[in-house]
Design a protein that fits this description.
The chain contains two helices and two strands, in the order αβαβ. With 59 residues, the protein is mainly alpha-helical. The chain has one domain. A two-stranded parallel sheet has the order 1-2. The mean pLDDT is 83.
Amino acid sequence: ISWEEAIGEIADRIMDLREREETEKFMLTRGRYTYLRPIIYNDLPKIIGSPNNISHSAI
């Protein structure tokens, strides 16, 4: 599977969760911080509608 196909598959699955109003099933697990931290770690789960954002220190 190519990167393009993989990203498309992920996007399709996220949209399916949103359509079924099951965004709580999405969980973002993360490692150490990067310069993209505010966008990826904080905003992405909010945009999707999920409260599930877990850092490496919580695991």
